[in-house]
Structure formats: C-alpha cells, structure tokens
Amino acid sequence: MERGEVTLSYVRKLVSMSKLNFTEVAWRVVNNAMQILGGIGYTTVYPIERFLRDLCLGMIWTGTNEIMKLIIQHEYKKEISDPEFWKNKRNVELDELNFHLEEEKVMS
Ligand SMILES: Cc1cc2nc3c(=O)[nH]c(=O)nc-3n(C[C@H](O)[C@H](O)[C@H](O)COP(=O)(O)OP(=O)(O)OC[C@H]3O[C@@H](n4cnc5c(N)ncnc54)[C@H](O)[C@@H]3O)c2cc1C
C-alpha cells in the first residue's frame, strides 16, 4: 500500500478476511481439540479451555466477525464499482450459450 500498488480499501478487505478466517478456523480447531480430550479438556489441567476462551474473544474484539463481514462486503462493493476493476477481466456472462438474450437470461 505504501508503494501505491494497492488501495487502503483493498488492504482493509484483506485484513478483515484474514481476521474472520483465522479466528473462525482456530475456533473450530480448538473446539475439536476440547471434544477429543473430553472432560479433562474443560479443566485447567491442559491449556485448551484457555485457548477456547481466548478465541471466543478473538471473534469479538478489534471488531466482531459480523462487522468483519460487513467491512468485506462494503470494500468489495467499492472495489467492483470502480470501472478500472473490470479492465482486463473476462465477462463470464459471455460464456453462456444465450448470452445475447437480454430479455430473459437463462443460465445453464
Ligand atoms: C477484553 C477486551 C479488551 C478490549 N480492548 C479494547 C481496546 O484495547 N481498545 C478498544 O478500542 N476496544 C477494546 N475492546 C472493545 C472491543 O473492540 C469491542 O467489544 C468490540 O469491537 C465489539 O463491540 P461491542 O462490545 O460494543 O459489541 P456490539 O457492537 O454491541 O455488538 C454486540 C453483538 O451485535 C453484533 N452486531 C453489532 N452490530 C452489528 C451489525 N451491524 N450487523 C450484524 N451484527 C452486529 C456484534 O457482532 C455482536 O455479536 C475490548 C473488548 C474486550 C472484551
């Protein structure tokens, strides 16, 4: 971004995607780890219960994951609203057999 190669909007989208993905995947992994350990996983004998609590917070602070989803949508919409975005991109609608039928689009 500092070299002017990508926009702030694009970076904000990537950071939000990373935060959303990392915290949700980590939550699933640790939740499975606790399930595998059974009751002892819930106690303080192993650090799993602590990881699970911390990951719950991970999905809340620095902006909740619901807010991350809103940011991703918002930034992506901005990205594709820019005509520059579509330069050198293939219009996949033209791949359809009846792409020229404007009145009723029947996508196979
Ligand atoms: C231990 C801890 C440390 C913190 N440290 C800091 C810190 O150092 N600096 C700092 O600035 N903040 C800090 N925070 C605050 C933290 O960033 C906020 O708690 C977090 O951003 C969520 O905001 P909120 O608690 O006001 O929840 P709310 O905004 O009240 O959200 C409550 C629920 O509603 C959902 N929600 C809200 N709005 C929408 C929407 N538009 N669409 C869909 N769902 C929505 C949320 O996803 C969430 O599930 C800390 C919080 C904790 C728990």
Account of the 3D structure:
It is a single chain. By secondary structure, this protein is mainly α. The protein has a single domain, classed as Butyryl-CoA Dehydrogenase, subunit A, domain 3 (Up-down Bundle), CATH 1.20.140.10. 57% of the residues lie in helices and 0% in strands. It has helices spanning 8-37, 39-42, 48-58, 65-81. Helix 1 runs antiparallel to helix 3 (48-58) and helix 1 (8-37) runs antiparallel to helix 4 (65-81). The two termini are 40 Å apart. The model has no long low-confidence stretch (mean pLDDT 91). Bound molecules: flavin-adenine dinucleotide. Flavin-adenine dinucleotide binds next to helix 4. Flavin-adenine dinucleotide binds at residues 57, 60-64, 66-67, 70.
What is the fold's blueprint, element by element?
Layout: H1 8-37, H2 39-42, H3 48-58, H4 65-81
Helix pairs in contact: 1-3, 1-4
The structure holds flavin-adenine dinucleotide.
Task: Quickly list its features.
single chain, 108 residues, mainly alpha, Butyryl-CoA Dehydrogenase, subunit A, domain 3, elongated, binds flavin-adenine dinucleotide
